Structures are given as structure tokens and as C-alpha cells.
Amino acid sequence: MSLWSLFQAASQVGGAILGEGAVVPTSLSMDTRTLQPGACFVALRAERDGHDFAHQAVEKGAAALLVDHPLVSGCPQLVVPDTLAALQRWGQARLEAVRPKKVFGVTGSVGKTSTKELLAAAVGGWKTPGNRNNTLGLPEALATLPEGLGAAVLEMGMSTPGEIRRLTEIAPLDAGLITLVGTAHMENFTEGQRGVAAAKGELVAGLRRGGVWAHLAADPWCRWIAAQPWARHAEALPVGEGEPYSYEGVESLGAAGEAFRLRTPAGAIPLRLALPGEHQVRNAALAAALAIHLGFDAQRVALGLSQVTPEPGRGRLHDLRGGGCLLDETYNASPDSILACASALLHLPGGEAVAVLGSMRELGPGAAGLHRDTGAALKALGLSRLWAYGEFAGDYVEGFGLRSVAFPDFETLRDDVAGLSAIPPGARILVKGSRYWRAERIVDWFLTP
To answer: What is the model's pLDDT at position 143?
Structure first.
């Protein structure tokens, strides 16, 4: 079975075809900025009406349009009552038609994307590209899922209750993994971290009966999930001290990554990662334990894990012209992820360890306190200086104390004499922040000649 023509897609999602129905889109796209020639442009109604950009999509090479009313265009169109519902059904139906032997889901408050990469490498599977982990991006990716796959690894994110439940309706799972239940998006949950845990647990609730899900044995909220009545149809696989699967002998290799041993019921397996930081060891241990428990060859699992390299914004390490290094963790930020990345920084070679942090978001009414606690924890870890910017920069600084400075925005951080230019040559620099504060601009500042 090749990719679907508009005729075949219409048979799954309904609607009427205008123009040539035999055209076969190479992908689906909701964004004209990233649309590739040959894609079907999906005109969604959101803050901006995607139908207003259909002409631009055609100019960029769209092969077809998914719309909710006919447009004046020579481009073939699939006209449906609701383009969002049609997008989700297209992805769901494609997965049903070409379903791999094993479908995995990965979620968690931190480390979802890195762990998705690690698990896909461990099982030799297809993976959702980039961060297509929501109710738009996941079906968009699944709509052109290849056939004949042994495994697929799907990242599943959420910011409100019910989102992961919907994702598991679109893509029912055979197995899953929860990296950690932390504090991200807590402002959207009246029950606080219990609400976050319940929302992450929707992945477990969405497992097929007899499915397996892995979690850190030390995570109390994952143990809480495992004890819930709605989780009893699935097997929990805790990974950590005292469990059949655990990890030990962690050795930092500096910029080269990490080495450790995974203990399994069949014996210990040496593993090596090109990703720096003990938090990546935890992610890899979860991925490896789940894969081996499900029967994947241990040596192939080890080889796959060793070949995963950091992506931009997710642990990529840069040597700096004046000496020292920069750890690019700019994709997003939460208290747990900041401290994990700071710990990784301390194992890298170079001068004093410093952090440049954008504020965190979606932490709820306790946000100021969480920033203060994070600042204090960074100081306790052994970082020597902190530069912070954004609405909670002062709280970071209050927690960190001496040798920290706050700025209202990136521009001030960049231009003030006490800002980026004051970071000493040879330093080891962690750069991190929420997506809103676009901390990648800091990386660009350091790397631009």
C-alpha cells in the first residue's frame, strides 16, 4: 500500500473531491511557512483562518487542499465539514491501515523528545518527526505513515487534561513510557501535581489490554498512576534500584556523553550514550528496559542507543571561540529540566559553570516560588553565576543570591554591559528558557562571528 490519493483519503474521512482525485500528497501541512512541494495543505480554523493562506500554499507547491468549503483554485480539493476532525481521522485511519507490529507512546514533564529518539533507536522504529506531539501534529505525521514498519514511537504531549486521552484515541498504544511527572503546565491543573499525573496517566489508560509501560521506580507520581484502577489493565515496568531492571556504574564522559550498565533479569548490559547528562542515562535506561522487556535484542538496543546524537535545543554542545563550551538546552524549561541540565554542565570540561536562563511559564500561582527554588538549587549544585531574564528573572536571582543578575528581556540582556558580554571567557554555559523567551537567540549571539 502506497501513500493515499485524495480518493482514498476521502473514503476514510468523508467529504467531496473537487478536481483530480488521483493526486497523491507526499505529506500534510498546516503551515505555509514550512510546507514542502507535493503536500496537502490543511486549512484549519484557529486564531487565523487557514483558508486565507490556501492561495499561498498553492504558490509554494501544494498538491491538494483540505478545506471546509470550495475555494476558487485549480488545485485539487477535499471538501469536508470540519478540517480538524478530518485531519485527525486521516491520521487515525492511516495508522489503522498500516499499523506497525508495535506502537509505543512517550510522554512526561521533561525529556519527551530525547526519550522518543532513544526509544526509536533502541527498537529500530519510525518516530514522529520533531515535536509533533499534539492533537494537530501527531495526526499530521501519521497521515503519511510508511507501511511495513516493525515499530513506531509516538511522542505525546499535553498542556491540559484530556489531550493525551485524545491522542491515544487517534493512536492506540501497545506500550508506553513516562519519563517523569513534574511541574510543567501546572497552572492548567486545579489539583496541582496530582492533576498533572492524572493527565500523563491518560497514556497508560490508553494502552491496549496487556500493554506495558515503563517509568522510574523513584517517581512517586508514576507509582500513584500504577495504583489507579484505570491503570490495572496494563503492566507497569519500574526501572531503578531494587527492581529487576535498574542502572548502575554511571560514568560521565564529558563532552563525549555517558556510560552506564543496565541490569536486567538476564544480566548486565554495558551502554554508552553520545548525550551528556545523567538525566539522559535515566531516559536511556527507561527506553532500553522497555525494549528488552518486550523482546528486542539487547545488543541491537545498545547499538541503537549509542548512535543517538543531540538535536538543536536539546543537549547540543558547542565549543566557543574563546574557550569553554555552551550547552544548548533552549527548547523549553521546567524546574526539573533546568536542574538536570545544570548537573550535566558540571561534568563538562572548562572554566566556571554558569547559566543563562529565560523565565519559565505555565507554573501556576506558585511560579515565583518555583523560580526562587530553582535559583537556590542551582547555587547549591555548584554553579558560580546566573544571568536571568523575563518576568520571573528577579525571583531566579533572589533564590541564587550573590553573583546573579536579572534583566527584563533578551534585548537588555544582550546590550547591557553586565549582560552576555560579561560572561567570562572559558566558562561552561547552560542556556535554557521557555519557548516564549526564545533562548536560542542567546546561542546565536555566542556562535555568530
So the answer is: 97
